[in-house]
Each structure stands twice: as C-alpha cells, then as structure tokens.
Amino acid sequence: MLLSLTTTHRPATDLGFLLHKHPAKIQTFALSFGQAYVFYPEADLERCTAALALDIDPVGLVRDRQGPSGENRALEQYVNDRPYVASSFLSVAIAEVYGSALNGRCAARPELADARLPLDAELSALPCRGGETVLRRLFEPLGYSLEAERLPLDKQFPEWGNSRYYRVRLSATVRLQDLLAHLYVLTPVLDDDKHYWVGDAEIDKLLRHGDDWLAAHPERDLIARRYLKHQKSLARRALERLLAEDGDEATAAIGPDAGGEPALELPLRLNEQRLATVAGVLREHGARRVADLGCGEGKLLGMLLKYPEFERLLGVDVSLRALERARDRLNLERLPERQRARIELLHGSLIYRDERLTGCDAATAIEVVEHLDPPRLAAFERVLFETLQPPLVVLTTPNADYNVRFPHLPADRFRHPDHRFEWTRAEFAGWARNIADRFGYAAAFRSVGEVDPEHGPPTQMAVFTRPLPIELAAEPSEPAP
Ligand code: SAH
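^ thats the input. predicted complex w/ S-adenosyl-L-homocysteine below
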C-alpha cells in the first residue's frame, strides 16, 4: 500500500518541512499493525514526492486480536486484501506518521502550513464501494480533479474481470492539512469498512477532521453513515452535532461550523482574495483601529497584524470554538509583548451593543451577515451603523447570482448550510443603499474574485464611509479662538 504526495510548488522540497520528514532519509515507524516507511522517490526544487508505504502484518493482526484464542481463525483472517490497499489502516498511519501536517502545524515554516500548494496524491489501490461514481461524488465537490484507473482482478487473467480497486490520483491547489484530512476521512468511507470497533470517539474524529468541509459536502450523510460503520445512532448524532445549533442563546444564531469557509469556494482561493482586498481597502482609507466583527478563526486579523499601521485590532465572535482556534492560529500566547498588545479577541454577539468596541475607526464584517436571520440582521445594523458608527465599514457576502457557476451546488441550496440567505447583486445593492440612507453613510461596491461577465464576482463587497474623511473625523476639533 503506497500513498505518494507530490508538489510542484517552488521550492518543491518545502514538502519535507511540511511533513516533518527530511527528503534525504528513509524513515521507519512502528505502528500497532505493522511498519510504515517514508521516503522520497524524487526531491528537487521543481518537483518533490514523498511516499508513505505501509507494511501490514496480517498474521500479527490476528494474533493480537482480543477474544478467546483459537476462535474464528478462518483463512480469511490471514489471507485478505488489507496489506495491499488503502483502508482505515492508512488513516491511522496518516495520523501517526504525518500527525503534525494533518493538524496544520509546521514549526519551522508556519506560513507553509497555511498556504495552498499544488498537490497530487496518488493511491496505488483504493477499494471503492460504489465504484468511480462514488469516488467522484466524494472528491470532486472538494475541488479535486481526479484520475481513476480500475485495476483488474489479476493482470495475467484479464478474463476474470475487474476488481473493486482503483489506482487514483487527486490533484488540487490545497493546504496539505486539508488534503490529508480529506484522505483520512474519505479512504475508509470508500472502502466502507474499519479495522477497529467504532464508538463515540469516532464521532469526535469525524467532526475534528471533517471540520470546515463536511457540513457543506453534498454527500455528508453518506460520509457519516459509512465512516461510522452504518451505526445509525452514531451517524445521526454526528450529523446533529455537525449541523445543529449550539445550546446557549447567543450561539443559537449560528451552527457549530459556521466559521468554516464553504468547501465549494476552496478551488477559487476566494478567502485569500477576500482578505487581501479587505486589507487593501482598510489601508487606502488610513484605518488604524479595526474591529473585525465575526472574526471566526482570525484569518483577517492575522493578515492585518503584519502591517504596523494597524495599531489596534479587535476580533469579536460569538463562537468560543472559533475564538480558541483564532488564539492558536495567531499564536497569541507566544507573540512578543508589543505585538500582543495590539490585538484582542472578544467573546460577544454582534446583535448587542458592546462598549468594548467604541473608538474603532473601521469595522469589518467578512462573510458574516448571511449567517444572521432577519431579526438579528436588523439588530446588527443598528448596533453597527447607529451605535458604533465607525467612519469606515467593509462588509462582504456571497453573490447569489454567481452560484450557478458551482456545478455541485443544487439550485435550492446555499453555499454553506448555516447561511440564512444569499443575496443577488441587486438585493445586496438595495440593502446597502438603504443602510447608507438610513444611517448617513456613502456606499461604494467592489468585487472579490474573478468576475463572470454574466453573473458577476463570487463575493461582493460594500465599503461604507461617513462623509467625513477619517483623518478629520479622528482629530479632535480645534477650540474656537
Ligand atoms: N469573518 C470570518 C468568519 C466568517 S464565518 C472569515 O471571513 O473567515 C461567520 C462568523 O460569524 C462565524 O465565526 C460566526 O461564529 C460569527 N457569527 C455569527 N453570528 C454571530 C453573532 N450574532 N455574533 C457574533 N459573531 C457571529
């Protein structure tokens, strides 16, 4: 069983940093079911491949199995496909051997772990229950292009027909941690089996590694069902936790995974473009004290922190889980004191007034309004534009006109299951003009992402300014002589 990961990112040998495995060495890892080896068949600046080979010991597996000895030792337990194919053993090996990469950690080069890189994953033999159709239905909505070659039962006897195994190559520009998480979850789903007992802990694993993408995946029910070995009550609980609303009042506005970027937007690299556009607008307007409302995992804050002109950065979110992740991502505990003093994360809801936010000269709400149902949206409008009244507000939201460009998005679904609505360009412009009129702002519009001539950009942005330029608004007026 072989999993090869290849990148053409320059320098391609960065893959070694990301995997925490030196390209010049062959490394061996002892796992409970056999040995894993990592080696690099090629490693130069243009192209680098890391191979993970599993040597599963089927006899050892049977010997170590709990239960009365001698019971059930049918031949099948010794002679089976497990040593040769990708299965739940591969998931365990990914977690053990590539654990840091799977969890998005790269001590030597943290920026690499966050970067989307051109990556290929090749699996020498992947059992696919449901064949190529299911294989495509699982990977393509995540943005992969896929080559699949069905393997014969025996090359020497083509008349025996085909096996249920495929040689598969997946390609995408993704973060390595996302690719590994997709393989971790979807390999046993395709195999439709697991080598170990599945209980509650398995729900946690599914939600942890399915975070950010599973909720929006069109096949999430099938994935949960198969991942949890068709135990209906486990699958039901997993889906409930994935989609259900959290208990407390404030959090009830959002689903637990509301902070995740919709999986179907990933191939457009929209998030990065959004953040870069927002940072650009803030800098053009000379903003210095910025409140990021609904900051999620703190991606925008992380970007703004790099520019010294932002003196004060506040991130607010109602989800404690998102704030925890923001704290980790931004490395707050380890920031030098001066940097640390520039940034603060606040737990709060955008639909209530919040004294802690006064004095900001700009507020951003990036992909947030579509998570608020109408009464909450109305409350948010007043809190932001009437009470807080920052001189600059930058707000983005999906453009519903563009949704026809997502082939896997059914016409009656939103990009993310937690979205309460998605506005067309006309609806957004109408809403923004109404806000500007009611609260004394000027509204201008920008596009984010590649603009479709007919359907517009994937993300739409409104920039609200109060007529006074920021420099004047921020200066206390001179006392009259
Ligand atoms: N701005 C971030 C996250 C967008 S997802 C980004 O672009 O990556 C929407 C975020 O809004 C989630 O993190 C969610 O927890 C937060 N949110 C939704 N309703 C909220 C409310 N009423 N108060 C505060 N935050 C809210």
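Residues 253-254, 258-259, 294-296, 299, 317-319, 322, 349-351, 366-368, 371-372, 376 surround S-adenosyl-L-homocysteine (CB under 6 Å).
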